[in-house]
Amino acid sequence: MKQPLLLLAKLTVSIGLLSLIANKIDLQKLTVLLAASRTIYILAAFGGIILGLLLSSFRWHLLVLSKAHSRIGFGAILDLYLVGLFFNSLLPGGIAGDMARVHHLQRHPLTVGDVFGSVVVDRVLGVLGLILISTSGALLCQTTLLQLEFPIHLVYLFTVGVIICAAILRIPLERWVERLPRTNPMVAKCISIYISVRDYLRTKAFWTGLGISLVVAIIWVGTMFFLARSFDISVPPAYLIWMVPTVAILSTLPVSFSGWGIREVGYIYFLKQVGVPTEKALTISIVFGGMVLLTNLIGGIWYLLRTILARLKGVSATL
Protein backbone atom coordinates (compact mmCIF):
# COMPACT_ATOMS: atom_id res chain seq x y z
CA MET A 1 0.00 0.00 0.00
CA LYS A 2 2.88 2.35 0.77
CA GLN A 3 4.46 2.02 -2.69
CA PRO A 4 1.36 3.19 -4.65
CA LEU A 5 0.89 6.09 -2.21
CA LEU A 6 4.55 7.06 -2.59
CA LEU A 7 4.26 6.98 -6.37
CA LEU A 8 1.07 9.04 -6.24
CA ALA A 9 2.75 11.61 -3.98
CA LYS A 10 5.73 11.94 -6.32
CA LEU A 11 3.50 12.26 -9.37
CA THR A 12 1.50 14.93 -7.55
CA VAL A 13 4.64 16.94 -6.81
CA SER A 14 5.95 16.66 -10.38
CA ILE A 15 2.60 17.43 -12.04
CA GLY A 16 1.95 20.25 -9.59
CA LEU A 17 5.31 21.94 -10.23
CA LEU A 18 5.06 21.51 -14.01
CA SER A 19 1.49 22.88 -14.00
CA LEU A 20 2.60 25.88 -11.95
CA ILE A 21 5.35 26.57 -14.46
CA ALA A 22 3.00 26.10 -17.44
CA ASN A 23 0.61 28.71 -16.04
CA LYS A 24 3.39 31.31 -15.89
CA ILE A 25 4.90 30.92 -19.36
CA ASP A 26 3.86 31.38 -22.95
CA LEU A 27 3.56 27.85 -24.33
CA GLN A 28 3.55 29.22 -27.89
CA LYS A 29 7.04 30.66 -27.31
CA LEU A 30 8.12 27.25 -26.06
CA THR A 31 6.95 25.65 -29.32
CA VAL A 32 8.76 28.29 -31.39
CA LEU A 33 11.99 27.73 -29.44
CA LEU A 34 11.83 23.97 -29.96
CA ALA A 35 11.23 24.41 -33.68
CA ALA A 36 14.16 26.83 -33.99
CA SER A 37 16.67 24.62 -32.13
CA ARG A 38 19.88 23.63 -33.92
CA THR A 39 19.89 19.89 -34.46
CA ILE A 40 23.67 19.48 -34.49
CA TYR A 41 23.94 20.68 -30.90
CA ILE A 42 20.99 18.54 -29.82
CA LEU A 43 22.72 15.48 -31.25
CA ALA A 44 25.99 16.45 -29.55
CA ALA A 45 24.15 16.75 -26.23
CA PHE A 46 22.51 13.37 -26.67
CA GLY A 47 25.89 11.88 -27.53
CA GLY A 48 27.20 13.28 -24.25
CA ILE A 49 24.43 11.53 -22.31
CA ILE A 50 25.19 8.22 -24.04
CA LEU A 51 28.92 8.63 -23.33
CA GLY A 52 28.18 9.39 -19.68
CA LEU A 53 26.04 6.26 -19.46
CA LEU A 54 28.81 4.09 -20.93
CA LEU A 55 31.41 5.53 -18.56
CA SER A 56 29.10 5.05 -15.56
CA SER A 57 28.62 1.42 -16.59
CA PHE A 58 32.38 1.03 -16.92
CA ARG A 59 32.82 2.46 -13.40
CA TRP A 60 30.48 -0.16 -11.98
CA HIS A 61 32.23 -2.81 -14.07
CA LEU A 62 35.57 -1.93 -12.44
CA LEU A 63 34.04 -2.19 -8.98
CA VAL A 64 32.50 -5.58 -9.75
CA LEU A 65 35.73 -6.93 -11.28
CA SER A 66 37.68 -5.95 -8.18
CA LYS A 67 35.58 -8.45 -6.20
CA ALA A 68 34.52 -11.06 -8.76
CA HIS A 69 36.02 -14.55 -8.56
CA SER A 70 35.65 -14.93 -12.33
CA ARG A 71 35.63 -12.43 -15.17
CA ILE A 72 32.33 -10.69 -15.92
CA GLY A 73 32.16 -9.06 -19.34
CA PHE A 74 31.39 -5.37 -19.79
CA GLY A 75 28.42 -6.28 -21.99
CA ALA A 76 26.73 -8.09 -19.10
CA ILE A 77 27.30 -5.14 -16.78
CA LEU A 78 26.02 -2.63 -19.36
CA ASP A 79 22.95 -4.84 -19.78
CA LEU A 80 22.22 -4.71 -16.04
CA TYR A 81 23.00 -0.99 -15.86
CA LEU A 82 20.47 -0.20 -18.60
CA VAL A 83 17.82 -2.30 -16.86
CA GLY A 84 18.58 -0.53 -13.58
CA LEU A 85 18.15 2.90 -15.17
CA PHE A 86 14.78 1.87 -16.58
CA PHE A 87 13.39 0.68 -13.24
CA ASN A 88 14.87 3.63 -11.34
CA SER A 89 13.13 6.07 -13.67
CA LEU A 90 9.69 4.44 -13.58
CA LEU A 91 9.24 2.91 -10.16
CA PRO A 92 8.93 4.79 -6.83
CA GLY A 93 11.69 5.07 -4.30
CA GLY A 94 14.56 5.59 -6.75
CA ILE A 95 16.20 2.28 -5.77
CA ALA A 96 14.11 -0.23 -7.73
CA GLY A 97 16.73 -0.27 -10.46
CA ASP A 98 19.47 -0.84 -7.91
CA MET A 99 17.55 -3.81 -6.55
CA ALA A 100 17.19 -5.15 -10.10
CA ARG A 101 20.95 -4.84 -10.57
CA VAL A 102 21.55 -6.65 -7.29
CA HIS A 103 19.09 -9.42 -8.18
CA HIS A 104 20.64 -10.18 -11.56
CA LEU A 105 24.26 -9.73 -10.43
CA GLN A 106 23.78 -12.39 -7.74
CA ARG A 107 23.78 -14.97 -10.55
CA HIS A 108 27.51 -14.35 -10.89
CA PRO A 109 30.19 -15.66 -8.46
CA LEU A 110 29.92 -12.80 -5.93
CA THR A 111 28.93 -12.72 -2.28
CA VAL A 112 25.76 -10.89 -1.27
CA GLY A 113 27.85 -8.26 0.49
CA ASP A 114 29.99 -7.67 -2.58
CA VAL A 115 26.94 -7.37 -4.82
CA PHE A 116 25.22 -4.81 -2.58
CA GLY A 117 28.54 -3.10 -1.89
CA SER A 118 29.29 -2.57 -5.59
CA VAL A 119 25.91 -0.89 -6.15
CA VAL A 120 26.18 1.28 -3.01
CA VAL A 121 29.73 2.39 -3.84
CA ASP A 122 28.73 3.08 -7.45
CA ARG A 123 25.94 5.36 -6.21
CA VAL A 124 28.24 7.11 -3.73
CA LEU A 125 30.88 7.72 -6.39
CA GLY A 126 28.32 9.23 -8.75
CA VAL A 127 27.06 11.71 -6.16
CA LEU A 128 30.56 12.47 -4.88
CA GLY A 129 31.67 13.32 -8.43
CA LEU A 130 28.78 15.78 -8.78
CA ILE A 131 29.60 17.38 -5.43
CA LEU A 132 33.27 17.83 -6.29
CA ILE A 133 32.58 19.37 -9.72
CA SER A 134 29.86 21.62 -8.27
CA THR A 135 32.25 22.82 -5.57
CA SER A 136 34.93 23.47 -8.19
CA GLY A 137 32.44 25.53 -10.20
CA ALA A 138 31.50 27.49 -7.10
CA LEU A 139 35.14 28.37 -6.52
CA LEU A 140 35.61 29.37 -10.18
CA CYS A 141 32.62 31.73 -10.25
CA GLN A 142 32.48 32.76 -6.60
CA THR A 143 32.40 36.46 -7.48
CA THR A 144 29.41 35.93 -9.77
CA LEU A 145 27.56 33.81 -7.23
CA LEU A 146 28.01 36.42 -4.49
CA GLN A 147 26.19 38.96 -6.69
CA LEU A 148 23.15 36.74 -7.25
CA GLU A 149 19.84 36.81 -5.43
CA PHE A 150 19.95 33.39 -3.77
CA PRO A 151 21.76 32.52 -0.52
CA ILE A 152 25.46 31.76 -0.91
CA HIS A 153 24.96 29.10 1.77
CA LEU A 154 23.75 26.78 -1.00
CA VAL A 155 27.17 27.02 -2.60
CA TYR A 156 29.07 26.18 0.54
CA LEU A 157 26.67 23.36 1.34
CA PHE A 158 28.48 21.19 -1.18
CA THR A 159 31.86 22.12 0.26
CA VAL A 160 30.63 20.91 3.63
CA GLY A 161 29.33 17.78 1.89
CA VAL A 162 32.78 17.01 0.51
CA ILE A 163 34.31 17.42 3.96
CA ILE A 164 31.69 15.15 5.51
CA CYS A 165 32.20 12.49 2.83
CA ALA A 166 35.95 12.59 3.38
CA ALA A 167 35.45 12.28 7.13
CA ILE A 168 33.06 9.34 6.78
CA LEU A 169 35.50 7.45 4.58
CA ARG A 170 38.16 7.67 7.29
CA ILE A 171 36.03 6.93 10.36
CA PRO A 172 36.94 3.49 11.76
CA LEU A 173 33.62 1.78 12.46
CA GLU A 174 34.99 -1.71 13.00
CA ARG A 175 34.84 -1.35 16.78
CA TRP A 176 31.09 -0.75 16.73
CA VAL A 177 30.38 -3.23 13.95
CA GLU A 178 32.05 -6.06 15.88
CA ARG A 179 29.60 -5.52 18.75
CA LEU A 180 26.50 -6.02 16.60
CA PRO A 181 24.62 -9.32 17.02
CA ARG A 182 25.34 -11.43 13.93
CA THR A 183 22.65 -13.98 14.84
CA ASN A 184 20.02 -11.75 13.22
CA PRO A 185 20.04 -12.44 9.45
CA MET A 186 19.31 -8.82 8.55
CA VAL A 187 22.07 -7.50 10.82
CA ALA A 188 24.48 -10.08 9.43
CA LYS A 189 23.66 -8.99 5.87
CA CYS A 190 24.16 -5.30 6.78
CA ILE A 191 27.53 -6.14 8.34
CA SER A 192 28.50 -8.00 5.18
CA ILE A 193 27.58 -4.98 3.06
CA TYR A 194 29.53 -2.62 5.35
CA ILE A 195 32.63 -4.81 5.17
CA SER A 196 32.35 -4.96 1.38
CA VAL A 197 31.98 -1.17 1.07
CA ARG A 198 34.92 -0.65 3.43
CA ASP A 199 37.05 -3.01 1.39
CA TYR A 200 36.13 -1.21 -1.83
CA LEU A 201 37.64 1.99 -0.41
CA ARG A 202 40.98 0.24 -0.26
CA THR A 203 40.96 -0.81 -3.91
CA LYS A 204 42.33 0.91 -6.98
CA ALA A 205 38.90 0.50 -8.57
CA PHE A 206 37.39 2.94 -6.05
CA TRP A 207 39.76 5.77 -6.89
CA THR A 208 39.61 5.03 -10.60
CA GLY A 209 35.83 5.10 -10.27
CA LEU A 210 36.01 8.48 -8.56
CA GLY A 211 38.03 9.80 -11.49
CA ILE A 212 35.42 8.43 -13.90
CA SER A 213 32.69 10.11 -11.84
CA LEU A 214 34.43 13.46 -12.25
CA VAL A 215 34.62 12.93 -16.02
CA VAL A 216 30.93 11.97 -16.16
CA ALA A 217 29.95 15.11 -14.21
CA ILE A 218 32.00 17.24 -16.63
CA ILE A 219 30.29 15.51 -19.57
CA TRP A 220 26.91 16.46 -18.09
CA VAL A 221 28.10 20.07 -17.96
CA GLY A 222 29.17 19.79 -21.60
CA THR A 223 25.77 18.36 -22.48
CA MET A 224 24.04 21.39 -21.01
CA PHE A 225 26.52 23.67 -22.80
CA PHE A 226 25.52 22.14 -26.15
CA LEU A 227 21.83 22.49 -25.31
CA ALA A 228 22.36 26.12 -24.40
CA ARG A 229 24.10 26.70 -27.75
CA SER A 230 21.23 24.95 -29.52
CA PHE A 231 18.79 27.57 -28.20
CA ASP A 232 21.20 30.55 -28.41
CA ILE A 233 21.57 30.81 -24.64
CA SER A 234 24.74 32.40 -23.30
CA VAL A 235 25.81 31.20 -19.85
CA PRO A 236 29.29 31.64 -18.31
CA PRO A 237 31.06 28.23 -18.44
CA ALA A 238 32.12 28.46 -14.78
CA TYR A 239 28.48 29.04 -13.82
CA LEU A 240 27.45 25.94 -15.78
CA ILE A 241 30.12 23.92 -13.96
CA TRP A 242 28.46 24.90 -10.69
CA MET A 243 24.80 24.86 -11.76
CA VAL A 244 24.47 21.59 -13.71
CA PRO A 245 25.72 19.19 -10.98
CA THR A 246 23.85 21.25 -8.37
CA VAL A 247 20.52 20.76 -10.16
CA ALA A 248 21.41 17.09 -10.77
CA ILE A 249 21.89 16.57 -7.03
CA LEU A 250 18.63 18.38 -6.21
CA SER A 251 16.83 16.23 -8.79
CA THR A 252 17.88 13.06 -6.97
CA LEU A 253 15.86 14.07 -3.90
CA PRO A 254 13.08 11.46 -3.49
CA VAL A 255 10.23 13.98 -3.64
CA SER A 256 9.28 13.89 -7.33
CA PHE A 257 8.89 11.45 -10.21
CA SER A 258 12.35 10.94 -11.75
CA GLY A 259 13.29 14.53 -10.90
CA TRP A 260 10.60 16.05 -13.14
CA GLY A 261 9.43 19.38 -11.77
CA ILE A 262 12.38 19.77 -9.40
CA ARG A 263 14.82 19.87 -12.33
CA GLU A 264 12.70 22.40 -14.26
CA VAL A 265 12.28 24.69 -11.26
CA GLY A 266 16.01 24.47 -10.57
CA TYR A 267 17.09 25.41 -14.10
CA ILE A 268 14.50 28.18 -14.39
CA TYR A 269 15.55 29.70 -11.07
CA PHE A 270 19.32 29.46 -11.50
CA LEU A 271 19.37 30.49 -15.18
CA LYS A 272 17.13 33.43 -14.42
CA GLN A 273 19.88 34.75 -12.15
CA VAL A 274 22.16 35.21 -15.19
CA GLY A 275 19.51 36.72 -17.44
CA VAL A 276 18.08 33.67 -19.23
CA PRO A 277 14.33 33.99 -19.98
CA THR A 278 12.01 31.48 -18.32
CA GLU A 279 10.85 29.95 -21.62
CA LYS A 280 14.43 29.22 -22.75
CA ALA A 281 15.42 27.79 -19.37
CA LEU A 282 12.36 25.53 -19.35
CA THR A 283 13.03 24.43 -22.93
CA ILE A 284 16.56 23.16 -22.31
CA SER A 285 15.43 21.49 -19.09
CA ILE A 286 12.60 19.63 -20.85
CA VAL A 287 14.87 18.60 -23.74
CA PHE A 288 17.53 17.40 -21.31
CA GLY A 289 14.96 15.46 -19.27
CA GLY A 290 13.50 13.99 -22.45
CA MET A 291 16.94 12.76 -23.53
CA VAL A 292 17.53 11.12 -20.16
CA LEU A 293 14.08 9.53 -20.27
CA LEU A 294 14.72 8.22 -23.79
CA THR A 295 18.00 6.69 -22.64
CA ASN A 296 16.25 5.02 -19.72
CA LEU A 297 13.51 3.69 -21.99
CA ILE A 298 16.18 2.05 -24.13
CA GLY A 299 17.02 0.02 -21.04
CA GLY A 300 13.37 -0.95 -20.69
CA ILE A 301 13.09 -2.02 -24.31
CA TRP A 302 16.27 -4.07 -23.99
CA TYR A 303 14.94 -5.72 -20.80
CA LEU A 304 11.69 -6.60 -22.59
CA LEU A 305 13.50 -8.05 -25.59
CA ARG A 306 15.85 -10.01 -23.38
CA THR A 307 12.93 -11.46 -21.41
CA ILE A 308 11.11 -12.47 -24.60
CA LEU A 309 14.23 -14.10 -26.05
CA ALA A 310 14.86 -15.99 -22.80
CA ARG A 311 11.31 -17.35 -22.81
CA LEU A 312 11.56 -18.35 -26.46
CA LYS A 313 14.76 -20.24 -25.74
CA GLY A 314 13.04 -21.96 -22.82
CA VAL A 315 10.12 -23.00 -25.02
CA SER A 316 12.41 -24.29 -27.78
CA ALA A 317 14.41 -26.28 -25.25
CA THR A 318 11.30 -28.14 -24.13
CA LEU A 319 10.28 -29.12 -27.67
Q: What does this entry look like structurally?
A:
- The protein starts with a helix and ends with a helix.
- By secondary structure, the chain is an all-alpha fold.
- Helices cover 78% and strands 0% of the residues.
- Helix 5 packs across helix 6.
- Secondary structure tally: strands: 0
Shape: globular
Please give the alpha-carbon distance between the first and last residues: 41 Å
Main structural class: mainly alpha
What descriptive keywords fit this protein?
mainly alpha; 14 helices; 319 residues; 78% helix
Compose a concise summary of this entry:
With 319 residues, the chain is mainly alpha-helical. 78% of the residues lie in helices and 0% in strands.
Give the SSE map.
Blueprint: H1 2-22, H2 27-35, H3 39-65, H4 74-90, H5 96-105, H6 112-140, H7 142-146, H8 153-170, H9 174-177, H10 185-200, H11 204-230, H12 237-251, H13 262-272, H14 278-318
